[in-house]
Task: structure prediction
Amino acid sequence: MTATVIDGKAVAASVRESVAREVAELPVAPGLATVLVGDDPASSVYVRNKRRQCVAAGIRDLHRHLPADIGQHALATVIDELNADPTVTGILLQLPLPAHLDSAALIARIDPDKDVDGLTPISAGRLAQGHPGLRPCTPAGVMELLDAYRVPLEGSHAVVVGRSTLVGKPQAQLLLQRNATVTICHSRTRDLPAVCREADILIAAAGVPGLIGSAAVWPGATVIDVGIHRGADGLCGDVDYEQVRGVAGAITPVPGGVGPMTIAMLLRNTVHAARLRMRAVEASGAAS
Ligand code: NAP
Result:
């Protein structure tokens, strides 16, 4: 069997186009405040790409670049200002922050209705309890890929390898919400290949290059590779692509699979947050 290759670039392009259409229909363009602290080269590139794609979709770029030695209190004050600013409909605090800053406390300070990364404890709680809210971009992008390729979710067995707050846990919850039967694996899971072989849908988000080989994949399963690693031969994922594509029914490549979806879903979240804000303003107007 040769797997269908899930084309994340194409799906991401179609999400970006639909976001641009939605933005054009809004009475006021959404505004995204990316917050970059310091000059870490990788973070600078990520933020530049996010800003570029936002502008291309018609979203206003309200970027803030802050010095690497900014203090906890000063950064908290910037977040408070962005929370209060009606032109800012989405806030993204680029991680990792310099080591002297308490990232968890700063993320928790972001207004959950502007939390376009979906990482505040309130956003996580909304997801866990099945309430509407902003979802973390990477796992939301995985769901978009599964839907784009019409992978049946209801009743399917999904195995998620990884239990991080950023990917694994929200991924499992999003799948559960769609009535998949979900197993979560982690570094203490016994016989990982045997558990993975039970999966109709296998999502690898462990951060270990080549962790998933063909012995871990049931023939015909859908394999989504969230991992990204830069090696001597370029980028690779958590899945041994060459081995697994001969067994899987469908597979995401690295690069060109999950990666492009993350920024596309950030754009979608930014529009969603802008709509939430419009509704809140309308509701407060109607109540007064
Ligand atoms: P993380 O915070 O390091 O979490 C990794 C998870 O994998 C942990 O839960 C860990 O288990 C588990 N794990 C580690 N080694 C394992 C093993 N040998 N067997 C089974 N489970 C194992 O990483 P993350 O932030 O979730 O990211 C995961 C990967 O996705 C990374 O490669 C990252 O670069 C990539 N990523 C890609 C995107 C994208 O846009 N494509 C976005 C985010 C992340 P324990 O909890 O037991 O330690």
Notes: The chain has a mean pLDDT of 97.
